[in-house]
Structure formats: C-alpha cells, structure tokens
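note to self — DONT lose this again. spent like an hour looking for the file last time. sequence + predicted structure for the chain T wanted, 406 res
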Amino acid sequence: MSRDALTRKVAVLVSVLAVLCVPGCDSSPSEKEQAPQPRPSAPYRGNRGYTLPDSPFTREGTVVTATCSMGARYVGVEVQAWDPERWRVRERRIFNVPTDAAFSNYPDVKAVNSPLVDLCRSHPDSSSPYAVDDLEYVAPRVRALFDLAFTRMAVVLRDPDGRTSHAGFVEAEANFDDIVRLGEAAGDDEQNAVMAPDGRSVWFTYTTPAGDHRIGSRSVEGDHRLSDEGPATGHDLPLAVSGRPPRAVQANAVRLAPGGRRLTATAPRIFGHVFDTWDSSGPLTRAPARTATLLDGCVGVVGWVGDDRVLCRVRSGVFRTVNARTGRAEGATVAVARASDGWVAEGLLVSPDGRRFIASVHLPNDRYGQWGDQADFRAVSTSGEGEATDISDGSLANGTVFLEWW
C-alpha cells in the first residue's frame, strides 16, 4: 500500500472515532465528578498588625497578671509583668477604679455585666455576672478589659438614677477623678465594656430605644459618638475584640489561634468548641457552627498549644491536649490536682511555645479561700513531663488572674 493511501485510511479512521465519541468521550470530568472546591480561607482576626510600645508589659518572655484590691474607700486593679523563669515581678501598674464604676453587683443598684465584676469578686458568695465562672472562662474575658499594651482598662459606670449605665475607661496610674465617661445620655444601657486592641475605642453591648440589643463602640478621643457595630444577644455573654480593623465576638471563652483564623468559643445552644473566624461583629451563631469542631471531653479550653491543638481541662484537675481539627485527644493526661485529695485545679493560660500552662489549685467551689491564705498557682508542662513549678509571691492573691504570656 502506498504512503498516500495509508495516510487517507488513518484520517478516515480518526474521523469515525471522533464522531462516535462525541456524546461521551470528553476527557474533562463532569460536574458531579469534579473534586470539591476548598473553602475560602477564614479572615485573619489576629493582632499582629498593631505596633506595640516597648515596655515590660509587651516584651517577649513576660507573663501579665491582674489582681483587684478593695478597701473601705478604695478599689484598684494592679497589673504586674512577671519573669516566667524566676517568677519575679518586673513592673507594676495601678488602675484606680472610681466609686461609680461597676466592680460589684449588690442590692438596690442596677446589676451590670462586666468582666471587672468577675475580677473583683473576693469570696464565693459574690456571684459572677455570667452563667459560667470557671477560670477557663474568666481569664479571657478579664483580658478583654485591657488593650494589648495594658495602658487602658474599660469600665461600666452607673448613674445615680439606678437605671443608666455608660461605657468608659481609666488610664494606668491616673487619679480617681480622671475617669473618662464616653456616654452621657439618660437611660443609656451599656454593658460588657472592653477595650479595642490598640486602646483607641471601647466596645460594649447596648440596648436601643426600641429595645433591641446591639454591639457598639465609642472612640476614646473626639466626641465619643456611638458607632453601631452589629447585633448582640442581650447582655448575658461577654465580648472579645481583636483584629485590625477591630471586630467583636460575643461568646464565652474566646481564644484566638496563633494563626488568627480560628478561635475557641462557647455559647448556649451552639454546637462545637473551635470555629473559623468571620469578618463582622456579632454573637457566635449557628452559621460558623456548621464547620465547627467539638473537642472530645473538653470541659474548658485553657489555650492553644499550636495552631492545630488546644489544651483542655477534661475533668476536675486533669488536662489534656486535643486536636483542634479532629476533636480527638492526643498525648497523656496531666493531673495537676485530684479531687480525692480535696483539691481541684483550673487552667488560666498557655505559654506561646505551647510547652507550659498556668493552673490554679484550690478547694472545690472556692478559689478564694480564707483571708490570708497563700494562693496556689503552678506552672505545669502540657506534656506531663517534669515537675510543676510553684509560683509563689506575696503579691499574688487567690483572685489573681493570669492574662497574657508573650
């Protein structure tokens, strides 16, 4: 057969095959067979966009605590910067609390929800304004009172009329009269005041004249005009503000992952512990819960051990690392205290390298103890290896809260 004839036969054969394959021989997969598209990346809600002033309260290798002290005519919050190797105080700051600030709820005054009330509780009979008062819940909401650099503290102020409350703030080392009241309108109902990361605005929940609940903010400078930031679910849940520009989450136990795109949180009737971040202010809802992770056996989240793992208290005095993507426990359990010995332990803070955490050891249902009792705080390995380190200093009280570990 000649080369030209062979070429013509091959061309005819190719044409026939092409016709036969038109209905079903497309090499590209059908829509049903295509691989699922990956979810869009969650927005970054971390705080690395802020430049912090250099001070003992912002340097790496520092632990920051807060302790509320009350006298007959004095209320103050002492913030301390600690060396976490020797457990010695490097620096102290005092935030003087004015008498019209809500640091306690008592009869015949408007009950106010504020993390400051949590911080200034001094005995088990003084109830928390929030439904859960485990230290794993208390520590992150008290941290939210302060800006990143611990230069300002948010407060809620009561008016003498007994029904009005305003958001405000105090500067470190300021006099009692130097309180800044951001709202002035009669009948204001502003609660849950917390600071923005850069300290330039105070965020809070408020009630509109129509009775709706919203999240608002006011600048610490200028005319302090109210900015509406988004919906709220009443005053019962606290706020946590992060990111640049700042956004608020209304939920319990909010702790951002190191990567800034996931967070831990809890809220009534919301399934899960770990959620993707979202780029608006509002309460934790069922929408982010669709992709949430439930952490197996987790009673309270102490903090992130890495971007994929968290440390949980799994029962009284016992802690364990849990995978934040699968929800399964990893590694050994770490027993800090045993209820059979008459003690319990709660977690406060995890070190930035994920190797250590701070625990408070106390009597069951009584972390305050008797007046003059020595506080029992311990630095413990998250892996359970090695001996725990006692954190002992006369300036620590049973009500001290560990807030930050840079």
